[in-house]
Specification:
single chain, 518 residues, mainly alpha
């Protein structure tokens, strides 16, 4: 384990931004989680799988439209955020760049939809979902991140997701022909991006001016954009390959629906941990640029601490309670119905990604980008795409021919673990000092205890509810709530007793509480 550095507690502003972002993500996740079972039940696995597949296809072009421009924009705008004239000039440059890439990306999407026969049947749904990245070009979200307007982002996001959640329950109804409902659902989902862009544009002039003040210099951004373009492209392929391949391995798209249910809980945790990059990335760039190594390493430790703190108990509980979780997410506990088969196995296989993917994202945004070594992330993604596609075809077509969803899940998990090992190795000088420390070991040990408890206690509670006359879905819900509550007590209590860093910082209020890494 690494020796301790002089303690530098996170500033109050940084902690406040972390809390605000966590509140935003948790609230949005909760609202999304409430609507998800309703949608899966209303659409059914085939139609929901069709929606997921079409959304995956559009997502490729969304990332191509961005080509990581927001990441570079945050880095460059952070340097001049106190100079309104310079900030406005850079904002205009990045807006023009993103406008060009968005038009090119959309043009490519249209060409493929017109020329590829297999896409024509779903082209109307694809065009509707493509509004996401067309409207996103006008969101200027990266300006609000650069200026650390996290309270505004949180309030706006919660209000909009609450509105669209309500619209989902009002306008989506279970019918004998759910294919008609999928277009209504797609319209509701893209409305979030449209309304976000409108809100951001209303307040934008408070912080910048869109009046041109001088010549634009796009050449300075071409080299980093070229590198990040390939990173974005391979990251998109890597993230979406599993669902996209399943759509071809299973023409009914029901496997895609099952896979989506299995990864829903995982996506929630990954969204929670990776959303914090908006807080940590600007600070990481600042500390590393100022060569303040102690502050930089302490920031990394704080960031990884939160990742472990969230991901480990999630892995412990989701793997041991996968069946009730996926049954409740899918809106159906009747496994004999043929709906969303093997979703629980997918969740158990991919649960490790809640930690591995979050570690990779933190290494990329807080170590490789500030150090301008993002090429290593590109190498990792290229290898990941090859492993994921090759493994998915091997496991999905040969080893698990009857259940390709399981084969694709195994291939995805293995690829992510290999990428994580590689990224830790190439950033060893910093990652070892933030990952392989005593504090994270405490979290792992107590997380393992929680897993053992949940493994034995959850089935017992389910049986108790069933024996008392409860329906299976009621038994699952009751068991899940009680087991999760007791697991949380065990987890938090154990961490407090062991003086875990994050809880000590929050509750013990001692100056040395965060400097015990050895």
């Amino acid at each position: 384990m690494d020796k301790a550095l002089p303690s530098e507690n996170p500033s109050k502003k940084l902690r406040a931004n972390v809390v605000i972002n966590l509140i935003r993500t948790l609230t949005m996740t909760l609202l999304s989680f409430l609507t998800f079972p309703y949608i899966t039940r209303a659409l059914g696995d085939e139609v929901f799988g069709l929606y997921t597949w079409a959304n995956t296809f559009v997502y490729y072009f969304l990332i191509l439209a961005k080509i990581s421009i927001p990441n570079i924009a945050i880095r460059e705008c952070a340097k001049v955020k106190n100079d309104k004239v310079a900030l406005s000039h850079k904002t205009q440059e990045f807006f023009i760049l993103q406008g060009i890439t968005t038009l090119l990306s959309y043009s490519l999407l249209v060409v493929l939809c017109v020329s590829v026969p297999s896409l024509r049947d779903t082209s109307a749904l694809i065009y509707l979902l493509a509004i996401n990245f067309l409207a996103g070009a006008f969101s200027f979200e990266w300006i609000y991140v650069t200026l650390e307007k996290h309270f505004y982002i949180t309030v706006r996001s919660i209000l909009l997701i609450a509105l669209t959640s309500a619209m989902t329950f009002i306008f989506i109804k279970p019918t004998a022909y759910p294919i008609n409902e999928v277009y209504i659902y797609a319209t509701i989902t893209v409305s979030v991006t449209v309304l976000t862009s409108i809100c951001n544009l209303v307040f934008l002039r408070r912080y910048i001016s869109l009046k041109k003040t001088g010549p634009y210099d796009f050449k300075q951004y071409l080299r980093p954009l070229f590198t990040l373009f390939f990173i974005s492209a391979f990251l998109t392929v890597y993230n979406q390959t599993d669902s996209f391949l399943l759509g071809y391995l299973d023409p009914t798209k029901s496997a895609v629906g099952s896979y989506s249910v299995g990864v829903k809980g995982i996506d929630i945790i990954i969204t929670l941990t990776t959303s914090l990059f908006t807080v940590f990335m600007p600070r990481a760039h600042y500390y590393y640029g100022k060569e303040n190594k102690n502050a930089y390493v302490n920031l990394l430790r704080y960031s990884f601490n939160i990742t472990f703190f969230i991901a480990i108990p999630a892995i412990a509980t989701m793997t041991t309670m996968a069946t009730p979780i996926t049954a409740l997410i899918s809106g159906s506990s009747d496994t004999a119905s043929g709906q969303y088969n093997n979703a629980n196995i997918v969740l158990m296989i991919l649960a490790v990604m809640m930690l591995s993917y979050s570690i990779c994202d933190t290494i990329y945004t807080q170590i490789l980008l500030p150090q301008k070594r993002e090429k290593h992330y590109a190498y990792a993604l290229i290898a990941g795409v090859i492993l994921n596609i090759g493994g998915s075809l091997l496991f999905g077509l040969l080893l698990f021919k009857e259940t390709p969803v399981i084969g694709v899940a195994i291939a995805t998990a293995l690829a992510d673990i290999i990428i994580t090992v590689y990224l830790i190795a190439v950033t060893w000088n910093y990652s070892r000092r933030a990952i392989f420390i005593l504090n994270n070991l405490k979290i792992l040990i107590i997380g393992a205890l929680v897993a053992v408890f949940a493994y034995f206690f959850s089935p017992l509670m389910t049986k108790v509810f069933v024996d008392t006359g409860s329906q299976l879905w009621e038994a699952y819900l009751g068991s899940l709530l009680i087991t999760t509550a007791i697991s949380a007590i065990i987890y938090l209590g154990g961490l407090l007793l062991s003086r875990e860093r994050l809880l000590s910082l929050l509750f013990l209020k001692k100056k040395g509480a965060v400097s015990d890494e050895k």
